[in-house]
From TrEMBL:
This is 7-cyano-7-deazaguanine synthase. Pfam families: QueC. Belongs to the QueC family. One of its GO terms (molecular function) is ligase activity. Pathway: Purine metabolism; 7-cyano-7-deazaguanine biosynthesis. Its EC number is 6.3.4.20. One of its GO terms (biological process) is tRNA queuosine(34) biosynthetic process. InterPro entries: QueC, Rossmann-like_a/b/a_fold. Keywords: ATP-binding, Ligase, Metal-binding, Nucleotide-binding, Queuosine biosynthesis, Zinc. It catalyses: 7-carboxy-7-carbaguanine + NH4(+) + 2 ATP = 7-cyano-7-carbaguanine + 2 AMP + 2 diphosphate + 2 H(+). It comes from the Bacteria. The keyword Zinc applies. Gene3D superfamilies: HUPs (3.40.50.620). It comes from Variovorax guangxiensis.
Length: 198
């Protein structure tokens, strides 16, 4: 079984990289405002873990909305950081690259709190798995941490806090804005982990 991880450079996918040690990691610059910081974080963790890292650049900025694209949220958005069909898009692009590298299993960095979006649910992951498995190559899609909170995932993966600090979770910029949902989650998780150590 050859595995690939869709690695955003955020806390969740970085922790899965540490925990599962995939054969390959794929990071995508799809036109999001924080792309360069996400790429830096992804490169750093892959270098430490000796994971074969691939970068895709596909400019979808014109299709985005909300915080990640630097525009107004779409009227259908459940939150200001919603980018229409983003997870479906990213998983498809990652699978397109992964299949050419002989990958049979693609891992997504979805965690329990992502269930606030339909594309962060087990139902969505199962549907995506069926869709890709139906096609040539029989790719399987899994979200190994979907039942875990981010703090639970970090603890399970035993990610050193100094390396967790490399994660970039900001939705709005390459330097953390400390105001978006991604930044808020990052600081909340760090605070919870630091309480554990006290």
């Amino acid at each position: 079984m050859k595995t690939a991880l869709l690695l955003s450079g955020g806390m969740d996918s970085l922790s899965i990289a540490w925990w599962k040690r995939p054969d390959i990691a794929i990071t995508i610059d799809y036109g999001q405002l924080a792309a360069e910081a996400e790429l830096r974080a992804s490169k750093a963790i892959c270098a430490v873990l000796d994971i074969d890292h691939h970068i895709l650049r596909v400019d979808c900025r014109a299709l985005g909305s909300g915080d990640m694209a630097g525009g107004k949220a779409d009227p259908n958005a459940p939150a200001s950081d919603w980018w229409p069909y983003r997870n479906q898009l990213l998983a498809t692009l990652a699978a397109m690259k992964a299949i050419s590298l002989g990958v049979s299993h693609l891992w997504l960095g979805t965690v329990k709190s992502d269930g606030s979006h339909r594309d962060g649910t087990q139902e969505f992951v199962d549907a995506l798995d069926r869709l890709l498995n139906l096609q040539e190559g029989g790719m399987r899609v899994e979200a190994p941490a979907i039942e875990l909170s981010t703090a639970e995932l970090v603890r399970l993966a035993r990610v050193p806090l100094d390396q967790l600090a490399w994660a970039h979770s900001c939705h709005k910029a390459n330097v953390a804005c400390a105001q978006c949902r991604g930044c808020n989650k990052y600081f909340e998780v760090l605070e919870e982990l630091q309480r554990d150590m006290a």
